[in-house]
Design brief:
Deoxyribonuclease I, Chain A; 231 residues; six-stranded mixed β-sheet; single chain; alpha+beta; globular
């Protein structure tokens, strides 16, 4: 952190299952103070995998809920972490095949930006439109519970004309990525389904990602969002 600004990287890392070396180069080039991870590795040895992933970035794994995780750089402390998960609805796909999704949720905590406490919250919403709206209401309730200005960032699984984005605007949050371009897919960016929304008492912007197109395409199926927050 420098000059009272906090660098936050929000990134769906695709379960740490693509080119891990390229992913590490992308994250290290972004040099975040805080990283909000969606689709963090799970299943056997979850914590070990997440600590190992964080180490490749030169960061520490400090909190998680479901497949969301928060990593921090040296010298950054995450206070009062909140973790919560929700069970998602069944999803009907083609050929009348019905499947449930993995549990969703969000994780957040507080950091100091200058002398001001700011909450950072990571989320990954589901594929079902009604489920996303239900998840978002729970997440916003927890964001407000921090009692501080906050950043809410993550994979929204919805484009900006959808109800989730409209609800975020109704909440009075600023859409930092309105002019930042598409975030999915990394090889053919054509959809903006990842968001970064900020309390109106804070200032922020999306910074250019200082990584090569080749590394971005190899690292994950999503593009990262590098966010600068100022009080």
């Amino acid at each position: 952190m420098s000059d009272g600004a906090l660098r936050v990287l929000s990134y769906n890392v695709h379960r740490w299952g693509d080119d891990r070396t390229a992913l590490a180069r992308v994250v290290r080039a972004c040099a975040p103070d805080v990283m909000l991870v969606q689709e963090a590795p799970t299943w056997f040895g979850t914590r070990r995998k997440r600590r190992a992933m964080a180490a490749t970035f030169g960061m520490r794994y400090v909190a998680a809920a479901a497949r969301n995780a928060i990593l921090v750089a040296d010298g950054i402390e995450l206070g009062d972490p909140l973790r919560w998960r929700v069970w998602r609805p069944f999803v009907r796909r083609r050929l009348n095949f019905v499947a449930t999704q993995l549990p969703g949720g969000a994780v957040g905590g507080q950091v100091l930006v200058g002398t001001t406490t700011v909450a950072v919250v990571c989320c990954h919403l589901g594929l079902h439109i009604l489920g996303r709206q239900r998840e978002l209401e729970q997440i916003l309730k927890r964001c407000r519970a921090f009692g501080t200005p906050y950043l809410l960032a993550g994979d929204l699984n919805e484009e900006p004309d959808g109800p989730v984005w409209k609800r975020l605007a109704e909440e009075g949050l600023t859409d930092l990525g309105a002019d930042a371009g598409p975030t999915f897919s990394s090889t053919n960016p054509h959809k903006r389904i990842d968001g970064a929304h900020l309390s109106p008492t804070l200032q922020g912007r999306i910074l250019p990602t200082p990584a090569s197109a080749e590394d971005l395409a190899a690292a994950s199926d999503h593009l990262p969002m590098l966010i600068e927050i100022r009080v």
